[in-house]
Automatic annotation (TrEMBL):
Gene3D superfamilies: DNA methylase specificity domains (3.90.220.20). Keywords: DNA-binding, Restriction system. The keyword DNA-binding applies. The keyword DNA-binding applies. Belongs to the type-I restriction system S methylase family. GO terms for biological process: DNA restriction-modification system. Residues 15-184, 205-360 form the Type I restriction modification DNA specificity domain. Pfam families: Methylase_S. This is Type I restriction modification DNA specificity domain-containing protein. One of its GO terms (molecular function) is DNA binding. It comes from Marinomonas profundi. InterPro entries: Restrct_endonuc_typeI_TRD, Restrct_endonuc_typeI_TRD_sf, Type-I_RS_S_subunit.
């Protein structure tokens, strides 16, 4: 285990023993069946990717499924396995509600249930997210390799105590999820309105004129992260893949790197820019509203500026959501270690172009709901802080 990891664990004033993940479980790294064989996909077996993690404690279904043939090419993991994203959106978790397959971004932790109660293990692994982020090397997409992940430690009280902790956190989490549900309902409403107004952009049932995305937007990948950029004379805050969520940004842990005058002009964010994830959860995006002054972005993100005579930012954002969730990006995404969308493939995406007046009507509605969602998110932040406080006290045996 690295010195950093040891130092982090020494900070935990626990009366319970700390044990490595590997010592109390079997860890299975996911794999994607060959996409060249179409009969690997479309069956009844959930094929989980990071898109399905972090929403609910349990995952029972997924947007993509595999057949029995596809399952033979990978290793399925059993019910109650804790799924942890270790490439891209580090630390996103869920519990397998049934037997599932996962892609290579996910490590599945199959706990020895004579030692670890799965729901307790889920909460314990959730607490490792910030540590995982700090340990990830400075690459375009954050990665924790399997051996480093297995070496991470969790506290191990007796099983009965684990069940008590899980029950306390379940109650606190239920309150938090009610607020999350209010935000989701607003999101779902807007997405329903989008489909009603414009149709599915993948199939284009309304017959809008279609063009290449590169013809109607200006796009630019961000600055490559390097050790030299970390110690420059002009440190600036920048966005990473992990900071971009669907329709919103997580700005709690912005990092800094050096940008010279040429780079500042090239990579500075402007109001209305759309930040699109190049890797990990490909296509995940949000509209920049000058959330932070003088902010930039790194190479894990595409910055898109639409031609406002043709497209609105709100329409483009929702276009990417439906393209991502209905398979519209699958032919443009390359998969080696992880999924990614190159600058060339981005420009070649086909986008329907509805009348801009209709897009503007949607934008007005979207912005009114954006204010409502912002208020709910502020309330959720307060609830999250209370949940984290309860979690800290529970794992420290103060409750």
């Amino acid at each position: 285990m690295s010195d950093i990891m040891q130092a982090e664990m020494k900070k935990k004033a626990q009366k319970w023993p700390m044990v490595s993940i590997k010592s109390v479980s079997t860890v299975v790294t996911g794999k994607t069946p060959s996409k060249k064989e179409a009969d690997n996909f479309g069956g009844d077996i959930p094929f989980v990717t990071p898109v399905e993690l972090g929403k609910e404690p349990y995952v029972y279904s997924s947007s993509q499924t595999i057949t029995k043939k596809g399952a033979k090419a990978i290793k399925l993991v059993p019910k109650n396995s804790v799924l942890v994203c270790c490439i891209g959106s580090l630390g996103k978790t869920a519990i397998a509600g049934c037997e599932v397959g996962t892609n290579q971004q996910i490590n599945s932790v199959i706990f020895d249930e004579s030692k670890v109660f799965p729901k307790y293990g889920y909460y314990a692994l959730n607490r490792l997210k910030s540590l995982m982020v700090s340990l990830a090397p400075s690459t375009t997409v954050a990665i924790i390799n399997k051996s480093n992940f297995e070496a991470l430690e969790i506290p191990l009280p007796l099983l009965e105590e684990q069940k008590r902790i899980a029950a306390i956190l379940d109650k606190a989490d239920a309150i938090r999820r009610k607020r999350q549900q209010a935000i989701k309902l607003a999101d779902d409403f807007l997405r329903s309105v989008f489909l009603d107004m414009f149709g599915d952009p993948v199939t284009n049932p309304k017959g809008w004129e279609v063009t290449l995305l590169g013809n109607v937007v200006e796009s630019q990948l961000g600055k490559m992260l390097s050790q030299k950029a970390k110690v420059g004379n002009s440190p600036k805050k920048y966005l990473r893949n992990a900071n971009v969520r669907w329709r919103r940004f997580d700005l709690h842990n912005l990092l800094k790197m050096d940008f010279d005058s040429r780079e500042m002009k090239k990579f500075k964010l402007k109001n209305g820019d759309i930040l699109v994830c190049e890797g990990g959860d490909v296509g995940r995006c949000s509209i920049w509203r000058d959330n932070v002054s003088d902010c930039y972005y790194q190479k894990a993100l595409h910055r898109i500026r639409p031609d406002l005579k043709v497209l609105t930012p709100e329409y483009v954002q929702e276009y990417f959501y439906w393209m991502s969730n209905r398979g519209g990006l699958s032919d443009s995404v390359s998969e080696v270690t992880f999924s990614h969308l190159t600058a060339e493939k981005l420009k070649e995406l086909r986008i329907p172009i509805p009348p801009v007046a209709l897009q503007n009507k949607f934008s007005v509605l979207y912005k009114s709901f954006e204010l409502l969602v912002s208020k709910n998110e502020l309330a959720l932040q307060i609830v999250d802080e209370k949940f984290n406080s309860i979690s800290q006290k529970t794992f420290s045996d103060e409750l």
